[in-house]
Specification:
single chain, five-stranded parallel β-sheet, alpha/beta, five-stranded mixed β-sheet, binds iron/sulfur cluster, Rossmann fold
Length: 386
């Protein structure tokens, strides 16, 4: 058990958490019940998701929602909920909600002692890097990411050797080891801005943008810079095809098609609008299209739909199996038992923090950047593991 957990659980007199550990008085998840008090207290939260979560399912979720929100107060904890969480998590227990950039910014500001990441492991690592003195928990340690696992720190060092002097821009969907080998991080909200900043700062006409090949190709279509990338893919977004877009347009005339820039470039080109998770949510909120298709993760569509009752959502659903490892049950257990602490070695964290801080210190855009659609694909250099 770490020094932080020890302090939180009574090893010091600063913050003693009642009911923690094996002698916990708190019930196990299976013992939670849908009592009249639970029903009354959670009714306002159900209003947030009633268009998405059937009434018959709420009695299964509500006891966890009630218990998690109570535990958060007892533990002095916040839950960072990524947009790809299911609606009962995102809207009913998430304290800080949004895409990777929003979560990273807010994690750095929170005063809570405990951060629980309702998302995948690289996000929890980012929270730990930015908040080294806090206890960061991940409810399921198996919540990984196909992009993050596609590349190692050693791969980045080899790319640098092959392209000396070229700045390395790394998508936050990467491990702490990879961030530590990078010059600056980016998200899909600011990837073009950060890439152009890095080129100017390093005086380069080429930029290494890793590890997502498709995000890098989509960035390349927005800038005259030459882009070198890595053959990493998001297993959710790589499955969308330009034929899917054509089929959706035929089946649902008038539907507006929005794509995430982790989709292949030909999908972005065929869509009506492309942008980060935050940009997609904002676009729908501002324009309230009658019919809309979001080419992204299923729960993202659900969460935007919950806030956009005027729009009809067509869901060509691709689930992220890693995000779906996070459930109300394991969030409850993580808070109840303070388990699955995320640890990043200090030397790695210190170097990774430089890359993240560089991104966070860039001028904040007033709105997440768009990716212009309809662009021709651009040639990029793609590297992969030997
Ligand atoms: S949606 Fe894609 S990028 Fe996000 S965690 Fe899942 S596999 Fe990784």
């Amino acid at each position: 058990m770490s020094r932080i957990v020890d302090a939180l659980t009574g090893g010091s007199d600063k913050c003693v958490i009642p009911g923690h550990g094996a002698d916990s008085a708190l019930p196990e998840g299976r013992d939670l019940a849908f009592t009249p008090e639970v029903e009354r207290e959670t009714a306002p939260l159900y209003e947030r998701v009633r268009d998405i979560v059937p009434a018959v399912e709420w009695p299964l979720f509500a006891p966890f929602v009630y218990a998690i929100n109570r535990l958060k107060r007892e533990r002095d904890a916040v839950i960072l909920a990524h947009n790809y969480m299911t609606p009962e998590i995102f809207a009913c227990v998430g304290d800080i909600r949004g895409d990777s950039l929003q979560l990273a910014r807010e994690a750095a500001r929170t005063e809570a002692r405990v951060i629980v990441q309702a998302g995948v492991h690289f996000m929890a690592e980012t929270a730990k890097i930015l908040c080294p003195d806090k206890l960061v928990l991940i409810p399921d340690e198996r919540a990984g990411c196909s992009l993050a696992s596609s590349i190692t720190g050693r791969d980045v060092r080899l790319m640098r050797e092959a392209h000396p002097g070229v700045p390395v821009v790394t998508y936050v969907n990467s491990s702490a080891d990879v961030k530590a080998e990078s010059d600056v991080c980016c998200t899909s909200s600011n990837a073009v801005q950060v890439t152009e900043w890095a080129a100017a700062e390093w005086g380069a006409d080429r930029v290494i943008v890793i590890p997502d090949e498709y995000l890098a190709r989509n960035v390349a279509a927005q800038t005259p810079l030459r882009i070198i990338t890595w053959r990493g893919r998001c297993e959710v977004h790589e499955r969308f095809t330009a034929d899917d877009v054509a089929g959706l347009r035929q089946a649902y005339p008038g539907a507006v098609v929005l794509a995430h820039p982790e989709c292949p470039p030909e999908v972005v080109a065929a869509s009506d609008y492309a942008g980060s998770t935050a940009a997609l949510a904002r676009w729908v909120g501002e324009r309230a299209p009658a019919r809309v298709v979001l080419l992204t993760e299923c729960s993202m569509s659900d969460n935007v739909a919950a806030e956009s009752p005027a729009s009809q959502f067509i869901r060509p659903c691709n689930l992220c199996p890693h995000m779906k490892r996070i459930t109300l049950e394991n969030l409850y257990d993580a808070l109840r038992l303070l388990r699955h602490e995320v640890v990043v070695p200090e030397d790695v964290a210190a170097r990774a923090r430089v890359a993240i801080d560089r991104m966070l210190s860039l001028p904040r855009a007033t709105r997440p950047a768009d990716f212009a659609t309809g662009r021709d694909p651009v040639d990029v250099t793609v590297m992969s593991a030997a």
